[in-house]
């Protein structure tokens, strides 16, 4: 069915694919619509070839109609099964799919604990603009997301979570190092056998026990700066296709 006047590498893609799919089940499957011609320009097919490909029997047309109705969740197949075919007319149909492919870029500040070493700051070189950063784009029409640090945007600052101290106040005890005794509820007394108001042995009657989270220190290591007190900030660029 390839037009002999067209070289093999340039055979008419869209129309010939459509015509080959003209058998049963082709109309409703949508499988052919996934392919999208990117480079081949549409070529014409001779009328003679077109006509011979498009001719199908009445049973084939009926089967294709039933297959089409089956693939649609809300369609009933009864009309397709019981229909009376009065005539079959040859006509061209064209199916096409519109797709967009865009690229967006945005930057957000990111940070990590600073452990010393070279800092690629704006003093080193002028930071590039969002569209000056060269990246290899994914294949056309493929959804993709990429994160990459923008060069020359690094700077060292004190950790805002611990104010540069490397330690933060314990969230469990509020920084006091003690918490209410969970055995006596802070009363200092608890049920012990028949004696309902005996001395609480866990807190020694004080109603307070040492905080498990900070071991009574009232402070815990700062997780954000890994106790360094300094953070290395930079601009993180997100590219979405
Ligand atoms: Zn604590
Ligand atoms: Zn207690
Ligand atoms: Zn910190």
Instruction: Give the topology string: H per helix, E per strand.
Output: HHHHHEEEEEEEEEE
User: Major β-sheet, in short?
Assistant: 4 strands, antiparallel
Question: Ions, cofactors, ligands: which are bound?
Answer: zinc ion
Structural class: alpha+beta
**Please, how many domains?**
3
Please give the share of residues in helix. Answer: 10-25%
Q: Helix count, per DSSP?
A: 5
How far is the first residue's CA from the last residue's CA? 38 Å
Number of strands: 10
Radius of gyration: 37 Å
Low-pLDDT runs: 1-45
Average predicted local confidence, pLDDT: 80
Shape: flat
User: Strand portion, in percent?
Assistant: 15-25%
Could you explain the architecture of this structure?
The chain has 241 residues and is an alpha+beta fold. It folds into 3 domains: 8-82, no CATH class; 104-161 and 222-240, no CATH class; 170-219, no CATH class. It is 16% helix and 21% strand. The strands form 4 sheets. Strands 1, 2, 3 and 10 form a 4-stranded antiparallel beta sheet that branches. Strand 6 and strand 7 form a beta hairpin. Residues 1-45 have low confidence and may be disordered. The site of one zinc ion (ZN) has 8 residues, from loops.
Show the helix and strand layout.
Layout: H1 13-20, H2 26-29, H3 47-54, H4 58-70, H5 78-82, E1 104-113, E2 145-149, E3 155-158, E4 167-169, E5 178-180, E6 189-192, E7 195-199, E8 208-210, E9 219-221, E10 230-240
Antiparallel strand pairs: 1-10, 2-10, 3-10, 4-9, 5-8, 6-7
The protein binds zinc ion (ZN) (3 copies).
């Amino acid at each position: 069915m390839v037009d002999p006047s067209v070289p093999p590498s340039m055979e008419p893609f869209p129309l010939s694919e459509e015509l080959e799919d003209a058998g049963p089940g082709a109309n409703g499957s949508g499988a052919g619509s996934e392919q999208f011609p990117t480079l081949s320009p549409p070529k014409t097919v001779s009328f003679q070839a077109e006509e011979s490909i498009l001719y199908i029997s009445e049973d084939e047309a009926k089967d294709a109609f039933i297959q089409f109705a089956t693939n649609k969740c809300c369609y009933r197949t009864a009309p397709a099964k019981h229909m009376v075919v009065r005539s079959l007319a040859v006509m061209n149909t064209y199916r096409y799919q519109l797709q967009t492919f865009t690229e967006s870029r945005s930057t957000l500040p990111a940070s990590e604990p600073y452990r010393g070493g070279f800092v690629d700051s704006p003093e080193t070189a002028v930071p590039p603009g969002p569209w000056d950063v060269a990246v290899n784009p994914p294949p056309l029409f493929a959804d993709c997301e990429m994160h990459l640090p923008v060069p020359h945007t690094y700077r060292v600052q004190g950790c805002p979570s611990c104010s540069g101290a490397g330690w933060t106040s314990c969230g469990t005890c509020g920084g006091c190092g003690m918490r209410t005794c969970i055995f006596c509820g802070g009363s200092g007394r608890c049920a012990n056998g028949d004696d309902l108001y005996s001395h609480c042995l866990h807190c020694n009657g004080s109603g307070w026990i040492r905080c498990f989270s900070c071991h009574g220190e009232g402070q815990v290591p700062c997780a954000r700066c890994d106790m360094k007190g300094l953070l290395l900030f930079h601009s993180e660029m997100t590219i979405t296709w």
